């Protein structure tokens, strides 16, 4: 990319001054247009259109209704309890290397049986899924055995500032090779509800359905984000869009290439935001940091000497302001990494080194493989509910398992189970963690239905999951 920030900034400043009355104001506007044109010309060849096809299973009993019988006859679904149909989806992505690696959003390619990539020059390729991380909305696919692939340069999203020019590229509504311009409206949006983990860039560059997975470019033509979601009441652009910072995406991409999945860390603490009253109560001059309200026994936090009532001011030298941001930074750290925390404790500032630990995975013995099969039959995944998860979900629960994903059309989906809900009992037996949960499933594995007690942190309900 030959265009640099200084040149474009000078052009824009010249344009603004010329608009104040100079005769050559039209020429200045032409120069600004040429600057954006050059960025688009150099970046668009690497922006791709992604077409996916997946097979969806639907419970045939959903169609047992007189409306369908008048067209197909009584019992038209036959003996099959499920039907399959093909579902198509579209999105955007961008090539990041000559090896054909493409970054996009996980919701664009998840559950895909076939992925087709179309380049700006019209070439079509089949792509394979390298890895997907729904918790951050990042996915990596690859075109294999392709030659002369264009690719974009990656920037540094940590250097972004509010007010900077950005360009969103992608395929909104299937309209390929589209660019829109705007500014960075805000940074560090970590409580958007878009993904379980992430600190998003907010922009007013127009993003619409189909833009998902496309690049957000800075004024040097480098990618500083992945366009992911919008806030809308109409289904289209309303001035608020969100992009995953490219630095975060790069970390996830590296893990997907190396391991095929993303490993996350926990400290083992319950945390809460610090308001003015809490700051005054703990003897702080101003409101800052996040408060540790509880230490989980035998955790990394306990081992490092963290205490209840400590206020974390910084993580690896970067200020901590809210629960969501702190949780994202911890989770985004590779397990068993030494990190330095700046702590406020009883009027003193301390620095403590903590060695992060991996998020717990279900400890299921080989002989309990029936429990895994049962969970897969239901169509969902779960994880332990640690303190940081509970704080992010704003729930006052310390025991249970967290539903992390539910497959559309599955038995769990039909029972109205959703990611973010917490299972506190199985067949009326309380479960405190994944070990308890899987043990309860083993005992229920010979049945065709399981009774769960589900909580969202405010209310509870029983749900029966019926499966084959």
Structure description:
The protein has helices at 5-18, 25-43, 66-72, 106-109, 246-259, 276-281, 300-304, 323-331, 369-378, 387-393, 411-414, 434-444, and strands spanning 47-59, 82-95, 101-105, 114-118, 124-133, 138-143, 165-170, 178-189, 200-203, 215-217, 223-230, 241-245, 265-266, 269-273, 290-295, 311-315, 318-319, 338-345, 348-355, 357-358, 380-384, 401-406, 422-426, 429-430, 449-455, 460-466. The protein is α+β, with helices and mostly antiparallel strands and 468 residues long. The strands form 5 sheets. Strands 1-2-3-6-5-4 form a 6-stranded antiparallel β-barrel. It starts with a helix and ends with a strand.
What are the salient characteristics of this protein?
Thrombin, subunit H, single chain, 26 strands, six-stranded antiparallel beta barrel, globular, six-stranded antiparallel β-barrel, 4 domains, 468 residues, Pdz3 Domain, alpha+beta, disordered N terminus
